[in-house]
Specification:
This is DUF433 domain-containing protein. The chain has helices spanning 7-10, 31-39, 45-51, 56-68, 70-90, 95-104; strands at 11-12, 23-24. The protein is mainly α.
Amino acid sequence: MSIKPVITEYIEITPGVCGGKPRIAGHRIKVSAIADMYLHMGLSIEEIAKTYDLSLASIHAAMAYYYEYQEEIDRQTAEAEAFVEELKRNSPPSKLEKKLREIRGE
């Protein structure tokens, strides 16, 4: 019996798909999203698998991948969040925001 590298069966990185970030193979669910659901939102491995119709093995593989590359994934996530905040700060308010401010008298 030979040992197969399991993570490569469940995790893919494809340029142009999900920004080239690691994701569940055959899906557009990033490893970072799985880790966030599990670590920060408190969902169990079973809940995540059931909600997204994924195998338990794929969720475990995503978490194993996350822990192996945690520093890099966390850095990329922080950079993306900082980018979004920068865009928010530098973007003019939307028509809806303007209307709501008018209604509130701001």
